[in-house]
Every structure is written in C-alpha cells, then in structure tokens.
Amino acid sequence: MQDSPTDNVTEATGNWWQRLSGGLKRSSSALGGAIAHVVAKRQLDAATIDEIEDALIRADLGAETAGRIATELRYGRFDAAITGDEIKAVVAAEVEKALAGVAQPLAIDAAKKPFVILVAGVNGSGKTTTIGKLAARFRDEGRSVMLAAGDTFRAAAIDQLKIWAERTGAAFIAREAGADAAGLAFDAVGMARERGTDILIVDTAGRLQNRTELMDELQKIVRVIKKMDATAPHAVLLVLDATVGQNALSQVEIFQKLVGVTGLAMTKLDGTARGGILVAIAAKFNVPVHYIGVGEGIADLAPFSARDFARAIAGLGS
Prior knowledge:
Elements: H1 5-12, H2 16-23, H3 25-41, H4 46-58, H5 63-77, H6 84-99, E1 115-120, H7 127-140, E2 145-148, H8 155-168, E3 171-173, H9 181-195, E4 199-202, H10 212-228, E5 235-241, H11 247-259, E6 263-267, H12 277-285, E7 289-293, E8 301-303, H13 306-314
C-alpha cells in the first residue's frame, strides 16, 4: 500500500537535520574553503579576516552581517592561531543572532474558519509545490484543508494543485483556465466557510514584480477575500526561490508593499551557494520566516529554526 503524505511527513521529521545540512552544503562549502585557507596559515590576520568577510558576502549574507562577523573575529582572536571550528562557531553565532527575531512559526488561529492563507510569489519560485507540502503538514496535524487553484493563467498549475489535493486528502476548488482569479477566491472562502474547513490555501498566478497589471490583480484578490471576511487573508505567505540571490530582496520589498506579506517560505536552498540571502532579508525587512525548503520531497519543507540554519550554513554539526 502506498504511504500517505502524512506518513511521509512524520517519518522524515527525525532526519530533518541531515536534509538541512545536506541542502545547505553548497553554501557552507563556499565558506568552508575560505576558512580552510585561514587554518592552513594558522593565523588570523587582517588579510584572512577580509577573505572570510568576502566569502560571507559572496554567500549573500549581506554586508551588515558579514561585517559583524569580521569584527567579532578581528577583536576576538586577532593575530592568533585559530581552528576552523572556532571560526565556524563565530559565524554560526552571528547568523543565529541575525535570524532569531524572524524565526517564527505560522500560527493558525483555530477561531478563524476558514483560516485563509494567500500564497504569492514569482513564476518558478516553487509556490504550488510549497502549497502541497503545507497541505500535507496541516493534514498531518489533523486539520481539514481546502486548496483553491487561483493561478488561472496556467492550466498546468490547476492540474498540479489538483494532484496535491488528491494526494493530501484536501478539498479542491478550481475554475477553467483563464477564469477570474478574484471570483474564484470569493467562491472558495464561501465554500470553505459552509463546510467548516479549518484552513483555506489560495494559490495565485506567478507574478514578476515589475508587471503592474498582474500585481493589480493580486491586490484585487485580497480586496475580494476581505468582502467575505474583513480579517482575511489571515496570512500572506511569500514564496522565495533562494537561487535568485539578491533579486529576492526586491521581491520582498514589492510584495510587502502591495499585499502586506506576513511571512516567508524560502525554497531551493539545496540548489545554491547563496543560501545566506535569508540572512540579508532578515536584516533588511524583519519579516517572519515560517518555512524553508531543501528539496522536492514532501518532507523537505520544514518550520524554520534560526539555530539549525546558522549551524548548517556555517558547516557545523547539529
């Protein structure tokens, strides 16, 4: 008999650290190379500190965090023999400090029925897959879920979400390709309310942040949902692709301005050496980070932990 998605989520929970550290290998390896060079010299001088700072910036941690780490190294162990793990520990401590304030779980208010989650992001960010993984997670918690196929621009997106609904045991609502997405969202809230559904997740078309007309439609979806429930959407989750690096910063800025992003899910951290972009985003926007993804599997998306992420990106053990 085929495993249910909820079985898969439960089974994989125990080896999340291995998935995370493996997924961040490209990012930690880039930093590890610079650290190995320092250890080979057995001396932490100004030039090698600059080298580490450059490696941190290349990993997209941001100049602010990289500068703090360099300062800590400079005044903590300047011109002294130092081990690789000692340097990594300083990096991990500073990264954790930068992320501690944004590592917040997505809190579902059981009093809101349905609790409406609007999911936004640009094309290719992993939006629909993230929705499917969230549905599996919520179903595993015993909640009823409905998925609304609000990406009406692409028939493939509708089909993909339907498969996730079937796979997770979630209810599903869709219209034909090209239908009005705001109208679908309106109907979805009404249907979820009638059924007493715990969580409604609304997919939206992948929008490039420079396409004004598409961003206008996203705002229209929010307005229409509010007609059904003035407090909704209760969460606006922005899905970011880690491989785009610095471009993620402009995505957060624009989506936050237009639709009031309440939290982030960052995907594809396993596909980049620039996983530090999450640190730069935290430093600039202070937006809660709810989930991170390090692969395609149903259990490869998990709640964000600042400590685990910091130790993994620094190349330390759990």
